[in-house]
Each structure stands twice: as C-alpha cells, then as structure tokens.
Write a structure and sequence with these properties.
CATH class: Alpha Beta
Shape: globular
Helix content: 25-40%
Oligomer: single chain
Radius of gyration: 17 Å
Structural class: alpha+beta
Order of helices and strands: HEHHEEEHEHEE
CATH topology: Aminopeptidase
Number of domains: 1
CATH architecture: 3-Layer(aba) Sandwich
Largest sheet: 7 strands, mixed
Number of strands: 7
Number of helices: 5
C-alpha cells in the first residue's frame, strides 16, 4: 500500500520540449516573477515567431515551469533569458533546460554561446561556471535596483565545438 501511495503522489520529472508563440503567456508569467522588469506576453510572442530564435520549455503536467530562449546569428547564439518558476527552483531544472538547449544549438552549427547575468546572482553564476561558461566582460551599473543603485551585468561565453 505504501509503495502504491508513493507512486501515486510522486512528482513526475518535468518534460522538456521545443517552445513556440503559444507559450508566450506562460513565459511572461514566469519571467515577471523572476526579473525586476518582466517581458510582456506580446514581447515573447514576437520573439518566439522569429526564425533566428530557439526556445525550450519545461512542463509539469499541463503547466509550464521553466523556459530558455536564445537568438542565433551565424555560428553564435545569445541566451536572451532563462527562468524557472519560483516553486521549482533549486532542483536542477535550469541545468536540464541549459543542457538540452546547448545540445540543440550545437546541432544547428552554433560554435559559441553568450549570455549576461547579474553579478549578484550567485546561484546562476555557479550554474553557468559548472556548465563551462567563462567571464568575457562586464557592463557596470547595468541592472537598475531600488533607490537608484545598480549592479553589473557579467558577460559569459561558452565554446560548443
């Protein structure tokens, strides 16, 4: 009986899949909860219709619980955003999304990937370092904070092939 109940209430691992314009509302909701200035549903919808954009979503049941979006230009890509729903953070979902995304970028001929991260976001910085990203630049006072303060954006790069 205990084994049956354990299986019944066990959480299935999130499913990863390609994303498209139909995911714009879910992405906007997760983004707004994750960043100081969330992107709107229409911003995501426009972005997700671009031919140069690659996006993946993570779903648990019918709910979107995370996403990653990048733009490809020649043999380079920039990760524009990655976010995981607040209740799902700290469980490795960001790493799963990044792993799948980077593999698909490599399969499309992308040789290097860039991203920006707030320097104070230590958990993201650790994740990117574990996945082979290295610092290549810094944009001082890039992210606005309350009371006029700002923090740096760290520019990271990873070679794929």
């Amino acid at each position: 009986m205990i084994a049956f109940l354990s299986r019944l209430f066990a959480r299935a691992p999130p499913r990863l899949a390609d994303a498209g314009p139909g995911d714009a509302a879910s992405f906007a909701e997760i983004h707004a909860a994750s960043f100081r200035r969330g992107w709107s549903e229409s911003e995501f919808e426009r972005l997700l219709t671009e031919r140069s954009v690659l996006a993946h979503r993570a779903s648990a049941g019918s709910a979107c619980v995370g996403f990653i979006v990048s733009r490809i230009a020649a043999d380079e890509a920039e990760i524009l955003s990655i976010a995981v729903a607040t209740a799902r953070r700290g469980r490795g979902l960001g790493r799963l999304l990044l792993d799948r995304h980077l593999r698909q970028l490599a399969g499309l001929g992308v040789r290097r990937v860039f991203l920006e991260v707030e320097g104070a976001n230590t958990s993201a910085m650790r994740l990117y370092a574990r996945l082979g990203f290295g610092t290549v630049g810094e944009r001082r006072d890039y992210y606005a904070k309350s009371a006029g303060a700002a923090t740096a954006a760290i520019v990271l790069r990873r070679e794929l092939g």
